[in-house]
Amino acid sequence: MVPEDNKAPFLSFAAVDLGEEEIAEVVDTLRSGWLTTGPKTARFEEEFAAYIGQGVRALAVNSATAGLHLALEAIGIGTGGEVITTTHTFTATAEVIRYLGATPVFVDVDEDTLNISPDAIEAAVTPRTKAILPVHFAGLACKMDRILQIAVRQNLKVIEDAAHALPATSGGKLVGSLDSAATVFSFYATKTLATGEGGMIVTRDPTLAKRCAVMRLHGIDRDAFDRYTSKTPAWFYKVIAPGFKYNMTDVAAAIGIQQLRKLERFQRRREYLAGRYRAAFQDLCLRQPACPEPGQIHAWHLYVVRLAEDAPVSRDQFIEFLAASGIGTSVHFIPLHFHPFWKDTYRLDSALFPHSTDAFYRSVSLPLYSRMSDGDQDRVIDAVRSILGRGRHNIVEISVSVKAKCTSSVAPI
């Protein structure tokens, strides 16, 4: 089942895809002498907003966590309010609600997509509900048409956690250009666009944008770039609110500028690799990721498979065997109702979240990143098939074909 003498180098679960362009842009920034929020950050914001389109404004921050916190604060979330979100997410999604003294209300996910269930959202609305915080899981957009309809009916705001979702689409529009109050992207090192640390708030609401811009830098009415480039004396500023230290540096923005130019190529490569996985695993005892709706784009941040009940190994054994084969994996996510703080504070029982709970016990995230070679992926495919008892000789043909229904790109990128 596992190679006895594995001499191949360890294959990481994720790897950043950087080139000479990013290096040159960072060097240019270092030589400029402007390291903190400055001209490169402003340029990154402008280019990101242009990419999303639909007249949005983009505000760069030092993490998606910071962006979610700022967006929720800007729409007035505070003590006594409730925000509906999913338990099937990273802790940051919920902790930002706590930062503001509000109460996160957790609901289950759709069994197929592992995105938040619109029906569960609607059932959880109370007079105290102020907002909905959907999470686009693994790069597949939530059912945003339903969620936005609920928000309109119930007079609620929607803040999208799009940490996985660049450049996913919903209803033919890029996530970030929908009718939500704001959308927040992550540029963490493993994401589809990586700056190491960083994030972006996107909104068409000028009042929300202004509030986020002020609060991301100590509540000061002018950021450092404005103070040092305008005619007003650099030393003069006004603190108009008790803000935070959430600004992005020009070094991070420099990387982002070049990553943005490669984003569509990165997505095509990820889509191609996802198609190869789907074709190679179609006869195995595992459940593959949900496909996007026809005509929509999946960002393919993650490739999450779920072992079937008749799999010859448990999920944990599967991970161990892959590690012994020199292959890194991860699990997305350990749902919040398994973590002591969330479980104990909100009295969360696994029985309340059957789809998230079942997915956790069966899920494994396989390596998927744009710089991954076909040969690297073949190692993963061979190991998975060997562990599940369907070695390479059982494969009629591993190729991207009509059977790989989730993909539109069939040629290597």
Tag the structure with descriptive keywords.
413 residues; alpha/beta; 7-stranded mixed beta sheet; 3-stranded antiparallel beta sheet; 13 helices; 12 strands; 37% helix; globular
Question: Can you offer a commentary on this structure?
Answer:
The protein is an alpha/beta fold and 413 residues long. The chain has 13 helices and twelve strands. The strands form three sheets. The chain has a seven-stranded mixed β-sheet with strand order 1-9-8-5-4-2-3, sandwiched between helices. It has a three-stranded antiparallel β-sheet with strand order 10-11-12. Strand 4 (129-133), helix 6 (144-154) and strand 5 form a beta-alpha-beta unit. The longest helix has 32 residues, at 250-281. The radius of gyration is 22 Å and the shape is globular. The two termini are 32 Å apart. Residues 393-404 have low confidence and may be disordered.
Number of beta-strand segments: 12
Q: Could you give the distance between the termini?
A: 32 Å
Q: Strands of the largest sheet, in order across it? A: 1-9-8-5-4-2-3
Q: What is the 3D form?
A: globular
Instruction: Give the count of helical stretches.
Output: 13
Summary of the model, kept short:
The chain has 413 residues and is of the alpha/beta class. The chain has 13 helices and twelve strands. It has a seven-stranded mixed sheet, with helices on both faces.
